[in-house]
């Protein structure tokens, strides 16, 4: 009894298996079974490929969007009236105005902690004081020496000089709404406030300033959402590169609109030149689920289904070697079988 079935059907089904996962394997088994009595495909023995020892990665592909990362709301605690707003797309650096209230600038400070109280001489120590001193020092106002959590007369002196440079009242005090604190430079994605509105409240939506990819995942794929993990990126109109997951947030969705909760991943682009000249666009993102090191692999086209079940490969001598298949990756499949060795040639359709 002949072992072989139509190799083209096998290859097509295997491709489906790679895309569909477990369900695809079931489809493949049925196709192979139904073709048990089919005439074998006459393979061209000149088409061979070596069995390679290599590293393979089981990956999942998800489409993301190139931009500047996930948007976040930015609000103000400043009193007064909004008299100036930045343009959409504007990039705001440390010390520059985020907006204007009562014709006075409200600058951007860098830090992980927002100001939660007014700062002035005689106040208790706190990490918010250090945030202010670190920013004053970075902007060239260093009367107090090394930044710490103590608000001293030297801190007040540095504040006065900074206030004078920015056209603000020189009182050596800083209200909790006098500056906007963010982790770094910001890019204005959209405005949510208008001129003439109260300064206290939502102002705009912002992002980081570096190119980033945003990907939405189903909750069932949470295992892929690990901060610090590397992914492969294929940018439409750009070049292939890698990325790093830098943030994971949750989008609850709107049940009334039939929307399900999702995970929103922000992925930095390791090589910004890969996205050069591309403002926005889709990005194929490959997440690595598992890896295999130093395994034997052959092209998917070398696999054939056996009439008695399972799979095999055909050597140059025409003998069929039954194999157990493992993971699929980029046109290759992991194989194990008695007599299979690195470097030997197997017949393939590719």
Automatic annotation (TrEMBL):
Residues 241-260 are annotated as: Disordered. Residues 125-176 form the Peptidoglycan binding-like domain. Gene3D superfamilies: 2.40.420.20, PGBD-like superfamily/PGBD. It holds the Pfam family PG_binding_1. This is Putative peptidoglycan binding domain-containing protein. It comes from Lentzea albidocapillata.
